[in-house]
Inverse folding.
């Protein structure tokens, strides 16, 4: 009976809180109000009354430096603080992506750092290994509900049978094409290539050379960008291989079938000569500056491309082969640190904050700022997203996107960059180069699984 | 206490300040790195256990594998030293001797040669990157004038290491010239006069007078520049497209490996520190050998 009383008390205080802050939260453009009501209605909500007036709990939130994400999070934090007067969130977003883990590590060594932290989905196993993040408390984040309400991509971060992090939004890959260049080459500017064969054909048609030099590129493989993800999760499947075994212990992309996919990719540079990442300061820059007609990239690129002057581009689903559709999904996800867990009050505030920034409403707000799609299915199913001419392609592909189980994302990327360079620069046989990369990656996985028997 | 003793005491007291600084900033971290190299050291983890020399075992295994990037890093670093250091010293000496003979505008020349040395390696690297560009870079435009086909320089695994070496040699040249010039000016004119009276030709004067008397300077520069090439990092990071010592690891260095392993995605500081210790031993050995071999001849 005691627990019912406590629940009632908690409910009442939460309602009072909600009533007090309702006015403040309402006028904001993106309605995050539903979050407050769901949280309050939950019977498992901590029964402790909110901290007494005057007592403020400060928690730190860290993410890497990326302007649209910073803006989105600042908006969320403002709404969260309005709805939770006892909690103050300090937002640290000064660290560049490349230094993020290093700075986190340095802060950890000094006993400082975030309470709630945003990490790349591929980093989860390593951060769990380091003991840096705690498992999401099951009473606040029931695994069954995560699996029911969130995109299946999230299940890729389930590790050792637990969830350690939860995202606001997710991304996938798509084909970006330059409509003006299509028109100039006599192609229908509204019809991007639908199959890999058409893709090759179009890339050749869209390439222009002058005196042996490429002046306009049809397609350039940006291995250090998204091409390695496209190869691993999409092309290998389209050529009849599954990149990893079901238990993520064995790497299959060193196989003959995967090599067909890899060879297909290397030919753009070695045979068709439709472009190169060495030209025009890289493929992404080349596409932005109208020097490249077709580009494979993620939804996070939308913001920058939308603001590129004079760039008339479309976004389409990735080309298929043998009707096989696949896509690579990735996301930055949020976890609670061990540091937060050491202080019950901070932990409670961190849980509240994490819940708040992962609601469907938060996802809807997020997509407006960043172009990343809401991770909660109910928000992602918004028909307005599917109908959006730019976001639509990403939204359509989300159901079959796959999040790679990375052991060491940077090293695995490097292995494929090296393999691709070995083929185009050192004339190494593609199958041998790919097999070497797969061997290197397999060694990483063997090491990893040896530690996690 | 005598006056002498008191003076000595004061000297020690003053020495204590730089000494403390040295121990805290130099010696301490070095010893700390030795300790890290013996641990399974993930800076994010609370637990950093000793692991029975596993980092060194892995290092020796990687060094034995001809395809491994760590092995490649050591090979490249030795290449940088073997190509870059002699090149830098010989060009530097040549320029210093030329500068030593002229009177007019000597300061201006000195300033011009010295400017690259005080410029940030990052800025220098980015300027050279644009000079090296395959299609529109200055070097290729010049080559084109002479009908030479366009070269890929930094983007070609066969040309990238010499291309990077050229930048480093060029950048450090000013320093080498200044030190050589100081050495040359320290040689009394009477030796040259005596040699000329004895009928020695220019080559004889160079080999029998200049070089031997320049030996302390030469040893100093030899040791210092060797160490500088062994520690190459910023130039490579900024000259290779992804800062990864590419293409295909053709320009990567030992220090870049340390950085990548320690602070990269794997956060494997133990292994990174093991490479550092290895580099420490190499630098120490090379320096000692060089000093032994070259210093003997000073006794003239």
């Amino acid at each position: 009976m005691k627990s019912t009383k406590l629940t009632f008390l908690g409910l009442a205080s939460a309602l009072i809180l909600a009533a007090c802050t309702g006015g403040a939260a309402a006028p904001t453009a993106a309605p995050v109000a539903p979050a407050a009501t769901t949280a309050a209605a939950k019977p498992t909500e901590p029964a402790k009354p909110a901290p007494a007036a005057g007592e403020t709990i400060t928690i730190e939130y860290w993410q890497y430096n990326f302007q649209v994400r910073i803006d989105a999070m600042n908006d969320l934090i403002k709404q969260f603080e309005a709805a939770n007067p006892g909690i103050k969130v300090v937002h640290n977003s000064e660290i560049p992506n490349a230094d993020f883990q290093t700075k986190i590590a340095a802060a950890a060594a000094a006993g400082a750092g975030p309470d709630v932290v945003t990490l790349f989905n591929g980093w989860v196993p390593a951060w769990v290994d380091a003991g840096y993040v705690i498992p999401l408390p099951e009473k606040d984040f029931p695994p069954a509900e995560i699996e029911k309400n969130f995109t299946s991509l999230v299940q890729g971060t389930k590790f050792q049978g637990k969830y350690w992090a939860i995202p606001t939004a997710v991304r996938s890959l798509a084909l970006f094409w330059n409509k003006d260049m299509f028109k100039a080459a006599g192609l229908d500017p509204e019809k991007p290539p639908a199959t890999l064969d058409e893709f090759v054909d179009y890339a050749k048609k869209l390439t222009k050379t002058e005196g042996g030099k490429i002046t306009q590129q049809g397609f350039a493989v940006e291995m250090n960008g998204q091409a390695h993800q496209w190869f691993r999760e999409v092309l290998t499947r389209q050529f009849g291989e599954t990149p990893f075994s079901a238990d993520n212990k064995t790497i299959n992309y060193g196989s003959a079938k995967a090599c067909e996919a890899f060879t297909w990719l290397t030919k753009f540079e070695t045979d068709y000569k439709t472009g190169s990442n060495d030209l025009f300061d890289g493929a992404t820059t080349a596409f932005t500056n109208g020097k490249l007609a077709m580009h494979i990239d993620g939804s996070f690129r939308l913001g920058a491309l939308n603001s590129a002057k004079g760039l008339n581009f479309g976004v389409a689903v990735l080309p298929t082969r043998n009707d096989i559709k696949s896509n690579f999904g990735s996301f930055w996800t949020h976890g609670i640190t061990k540091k937060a867990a050491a202080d019950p009050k901070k932990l409670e505030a961190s849980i509240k904050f994490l819940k708040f920034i992962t609601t469907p409403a938060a996802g809807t707000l997020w997509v407006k700022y960043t172009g990343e799609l809401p991770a909660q299915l109910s928000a992602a199913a918004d028909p307005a997203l599917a109908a959006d001419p730019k976001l639509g392609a990403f939204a359509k592909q989300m159901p079959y996107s796959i999040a790679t189980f990375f052991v060491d994302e940077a090293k695995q990327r490097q292995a494929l960059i090296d393999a691709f360079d070995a083929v185009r620069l050192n004339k190494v046989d593609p199958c041998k180069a790919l097999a070497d990369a797969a061997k290197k990656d397999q060694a990483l996985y063997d090491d990893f699984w040896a530690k996690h028997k | 206490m005598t006056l002498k003793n008191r003076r000595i005491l004061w000297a020690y007291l003053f020495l204590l300040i730089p000494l403390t600084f040295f121990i805290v900033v130099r010696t301490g971290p070095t010893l700390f790195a030795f300790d890290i190299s013996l641990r399974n050291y993930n800076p994010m983890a609370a637990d950093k256990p000793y692991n029975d020399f596993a980092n060194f075992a892995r290092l020796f295994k990687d060094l034995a594998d001809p395809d491994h990037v760590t092995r490649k890093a050591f090979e490249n670093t030795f290449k940088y030293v073997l190509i870059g250091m002699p090149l830098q010293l010989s060009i530097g000496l040549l320029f210093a001797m030329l500068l030593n003979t002229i009177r007019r505008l000597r300061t201006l020349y000195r300033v011009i040669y010295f400017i690259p040395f005080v410029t940030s390696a990052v800025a220098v690297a980015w300027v050279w990157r644009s000079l090296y560009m395959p299609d529109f870079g200055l070097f290729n435009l010049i080559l084109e004038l002479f009908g030479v086909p366009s070269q890929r320089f930094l983007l070609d695994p066969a040309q990238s290491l010499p291309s990077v070496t050229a930048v480093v040699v060029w950048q450090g040249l000013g320093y080498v010239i200044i030190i050589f010039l100081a050495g040359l000016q320290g040689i009394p004119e009477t030796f040259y006069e005596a040699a000329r009276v004895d009928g020695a030709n220019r080559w004889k004067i160079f080999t029998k007078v200049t070089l031997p008397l320049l030996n302390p300077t030469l040893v100093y520069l030899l040791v210092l520049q060797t160490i500088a090439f062994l520690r190459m990092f910023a130039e490579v990071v900024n000259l290779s497209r992804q800062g990864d010592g590419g293409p295909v690891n053709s320009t990567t260095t030992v220090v870049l490996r340390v950085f990548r392993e320690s602070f990269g995605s794997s956060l494997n500081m133990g292994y990174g520190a093991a490479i550092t210790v290895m580099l420490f031993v190499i630098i120490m050995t090379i320096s000692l050998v060089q000093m032994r071999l070259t210093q003997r001849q000073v006794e003239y």
Observations:
- The mean pLDDT of chain B is 90.
- The two ends of chain B are 44 Å apart (CA to CA).
- DSSP finds twelve helices and no strands in chain B.
